[in-house]
Design a protein that fits this description.
The chain has about 450 residues and is mainly alpha-helical. The chain is about 55% helix and about 5% strand. The chain folds into three domains: about 15-145, no CATH class; about 145-340, no CATH class; about 340-425, no CATH class. The protein has helices at about 5-10, 15-35, 40-45, 65-85, 90-105, 110-125, 135-140, 150-170, 175, 180-185, 200-225, 230-245, 250-260, 265-275, 295-310, 315-320, 325, 360-365, 370-375, 380-395; strands spanning about 10-15, 145-150, 340-350, 355-360, 400-410. It is globular, with a radius of gyration of 24 Å.
Length: about 450
């Protein structure tokens, strides 16, 4: 047997993966139901004229409207199916597909943990974690297992190592290192109890800045190494709860805390969560191999998946300038809470002879959050230019030239032009693989 097979398919106790499945399923359900109860669905999918989808996913506009409530309710019930292992394959398939739809369907409230949840859902779909402590086992739909192949645990751990490492690397830029970015994030928290009085203190701002870098670089290696595991877990608990309470960043801190269960040894997890069940000795068991027809596909998937996870976050280094300004390569690269941007934007629609046909001020015609987000994101500025041109052409039979005029401030700097105001955006294609010259460079970056 090859070394890869010995590594990937050696048996491990089911306990950590079962606890991980249950907790992740409950968190997935909370994200689905919670988005409805908190008004997030209403604000981002119901009370909007349209959304800004990922370019190429415009067909997902079908989600805009009251039907979004049904989609998120299905996400909630599918998450419960994952947690309890009920019709697991169907539940995780529904969750993954619907979550991909709502993730690619809107960028106004983009968050990195939405992307991470999509990746986690995909891996949960590939890994049959319902073969122990599940409704599917109790009903006889699947045969119970006392061991899972090692790859099902290992791939999640490697994904987290990639995420945290790139998050640390992304922080190594001047505005983070001098405390500017963190200072801006903390400036609105001065009224908080306990933490509030510290938010204006220079030493506290730098502690958060450099503490974040050190934590991101070391937490996963610390969890992986047995002698530092408990210390790393304590720091992880404090770090993520602090972020959750101070910055209100959704489910991400709790997702990361759930993932720590994968780094603890199986015997400890079984003693903690399955006290009434005897420890299982899996040493005599051989490799847990998938069917011969599935093994090449599984190994190819793992290789391609991990390569993509390594390569996609390198995109910001491919594009010229700062991704914090141009946004090129920013998404899918684990650039988490790194910059603060604000700006204003208007459009001019002109005819063939450059006569002014119409002026459009997005804050007057769009929900406030959409208008604010669009003013600082070139891809959304381009998308709205296309929409304006299409709507005018449909009504008047003439496709106008569309120019975007505005300025953007990055991390408190003096506002600068982001989009070339002399470029007709309506006639330009979007190319995700090339730098767009109509995105102007920042004079200070």
């Amino acid at each position: 047997m090859s070394r890869m097979a010995t590594f990937l398919y050696r048996p491990v106790d089911v306990a950590p993966l079962v606890v991980f499945r249950i907790m992740m399923g409950l968190l997935m359900a909370a994200e689905g139901f919670g988005a409805i109860l908190t008004g997030w669905v209403r604000a981002n999918y119901v009370e909007v004229p349209f959304t800004f989808p990922f370019i190429g996913f415009e067909f997902l506009q079908v989600l805009v409207g009251p039907q979004a409530y049904a989609v998120y309710a299905l996400l909630g019930f599918a998450g419960l199916g994952v947690a309890f292992g009920y019709r697991y394959r169907l539940s995780i398939a529904i969750y993954t597909l619907l979550w991909a739809a709502v993730y690619f369907g809107q960028k106004t409230s983009y968050n990195n943990h939405y992307y991470l949840l999509l990746l986690m859902s995909l891996l949960l779909w590939i890994a049959p974690l319902h073969r122990a402590h599940s409704a599917d086992v109790r009903s006889g739909r699947v045969e119970a297992r006392l061991a899972f192949p090692f790859w099902q645990k290992w791939v999640f751990k490697v994904l987290l190592l990639i995420v945290y490492t790139y998050a640390a690397i992304a922080k190594l830029y001047p505005d983070w290192l001098d405390g500017t970015a963190v200072g801006l994030f903390l400036s609105g928290k001065c009224h908080y109890p306990i933490v509030g009085p510290l938010c204006d203190e220079r030493w506290f701002i730098l502690l958060i800045s450099y503490g974040g870098i050190v934590f991101d670089f070391l937490v996963v290696p610390g969890l992986w190494y047995r002698r530092t595991r408990v210390i790393a877990f304590v720091f992880s608990l404090f770090f993520h709860l602090f972020n959750s309470l101070v910055f209100q960043i959704g489910i991400f801190p709790y997702m990361m805390l759930i993932c720590t269960v994968l780094y603890f040894d199986e015997a400890s997890i079984r003693r903690l969560f399955f006290r009434k069940r005897p420890l299982w000795n899996f040493k005599p068991m051989g490799l847990i191999l998938p069917p011969a027809t599935q093994r090449p596909l599984l190994e190819a998937f793992l290789i391609v998946f991990l390569l993509l996870m390594i390569l996609l976050p390198l995109r910001p280094f491919y594009f010229p300038g700062s991704p914090h300004w141009s946004e090129e390569g920013h998404r899918l690269s684990w650039h988490m809470m790194l910059r603060s941007k604000s700006g204003y934007l208007s459009y001019e629609l002109r005819g063939e002879g450059d006569e002014l046909l119409q002026k459009v001020f997005p804050p007057q015609v769009l929900p406030a959050k959409m208008a604010r987000s669009m003013a600082t994101r070139p891809d959304k500025i381009w998308q709205y230019a296309q929409r304006l041109a299409d709507d005018y052409e449909a009504e008047h039979g003439l496709r106008p030239k569309v120019y975007a005029i505005g300025r953007v401030s990055l991390n408190g700097r003096t506002p600068q032009p982001l989009i070339d105001p002399e470029v007709n955006l309506a006639e330009l294609p979007w190319n995700p693989y090339r730098h767009h010259r109509w995105i102007l460079p920042h004079p200070e970056l």
